[in-house]
């Protein structure tokens, strides 16, 4: 983990904004919120990686890390809807793609609390980005609820994939998925994806 921190820090400061969030589609319904995570690599991959990493860890992390991610995206969304400023949102989101991909690729075995802290930070930024898209209305709340449901669903897909791969003795496929996430995240940073 100590080796990953300087990499993630460096990528956070050199990243160009993805601008994948502001004005990205309708933000006024449960269905629009549910569809949004499937509309961009950054959302989709991070949520899958949380599920994969939780499955690699097992035990309490299997339910705690995804639950914390969902709770923190809702908290981050509420902060943005109330106008609370948060710097470095887009770079942090891009860093989360690379960092979570690395954590899965390297099968980093952090204590449950330390992993929860990592997930908390990244989820806060993801939630904030989506909360900044919507107004503080009932339809905005529905949008965030749809986003939370889709997030939990993608976590479950990641967990399910990892469980199937373990069942067939193909744990290396989990790490390959993490590596693909790192490559896509690097491409997003470089602006080629």
Distance N terminus to C terminus? 27 Å
Q: Which oligomeric form is depicted?
A: single chain
Assign an overall shape: globular
Strand content: under 5%
Describe the structure.
With 193 residues, this protein is mostly helical. It has one domain (27-190). Helices cover 74% and strands 0% of the residues. Residues 8-23 have low confidence and may be disordered.
Structure in a nutshell:
The chain has one domain. Helices cover 74% and strands 0% of the residues. It has helices at residues 4-14, 30-35, 41-57, 61-81, 89-105, 112-131, 138-167, 171-190.
Keywords:
single chain, 193 residues, mainly alpha
What secondary-structure arrangement, pairings included, does this model have?
Elements lengths: L3 H11 L15 H6 L5 H17 L3 H21 L7 H17 L6 H20 L6 H30 L3 H20 L3
């Amino acid at each position: 983990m100590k080796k990953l921190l300087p990499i993630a820090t460096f990528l956070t400061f050199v990243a160009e904004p993805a601008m994948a969030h502001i004005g990205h589609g309708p933000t006024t319904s449960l269905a629009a919120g549910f569809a949004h995570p499937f509309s961009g690599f950054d959302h989709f991959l991070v949520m899958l990686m949380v599920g994969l990493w939780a499955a690699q860890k097992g035990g309490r992390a299997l339910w705690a890390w995804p639950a914390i991610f969902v709770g923190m995206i809702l908290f981050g969304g509420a902060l943005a809807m109330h106008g609370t400023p948060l710097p470095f949102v887009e770079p942090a989101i891009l860093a989360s793609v690379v960092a979570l991909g690395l954590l899965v690729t390297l099968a980093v075995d952090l204590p449950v609390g330390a992993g929860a802290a990592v997930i908390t930070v990244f989820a806060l930024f993801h939630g904030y980005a989506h909360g900044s898209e919507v107004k503080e209305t009932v339809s905005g709340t529905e949008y965030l609820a749809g986003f939370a449901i889709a997030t939990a669903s993608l976590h479950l897909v990641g967990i399910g994939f990892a469980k199937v791969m373990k069942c067939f003795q193909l744990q290396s496929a989990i790490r390959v998925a993490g590596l693909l996430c790192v490559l896509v995240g690097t491409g997003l940073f470089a602006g080629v994806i």
